[in-house]
Design goal:
2 domains
Amino acid sequence: MSGRPRNPEAKVSLAELNSLDQAGFEAVCGPLFEGSPWIAARTWRRRPFASREALLSELAATVERASEAEQLGLIAAHPDLVGRLALEGRLSSESTHEQAAAGLDAVSEQEAALFDRYNREYREKFGFPFVICARENRKEAILDAFPRRLSQSRAQEVATALAEIAKIARLRLHDRVAEG
């Protein structure tokens, strides 16, 4: 099979993914990394992938080989948690589901104010949004992580954000691609 997947949001098999042309592959794997389809575009030519883990490894290698500016752009593509885009309903479908899974769609006024303050302090210190794998956390754990991560250096936070993005991509890949 070549071309585009039947429905890029439907789960495809790894075999089907390996047979897609670049546009089809990007339609499936582009959304794995928020606002950064270039990662899928650069990884496509390394097909076929023996497993989802092999694909993840290649995607991670693409991110590692990217320039610092590209890595910072990847981090910056993520929305603030409980931020303006979420309140306006303008998040990607993936981010909407992920924030809801952490309970971020049901915060009190006090929690919303705390998220707003932490998001602002974090952006002022580091120059990019706070990124955490929301699906692996609840809102209380996320709020607890802000002060700890605000105490880190910028280099530590870049590394932490990229590690969290890798977790997000792994979960999104498992949602979109079946092994085999």
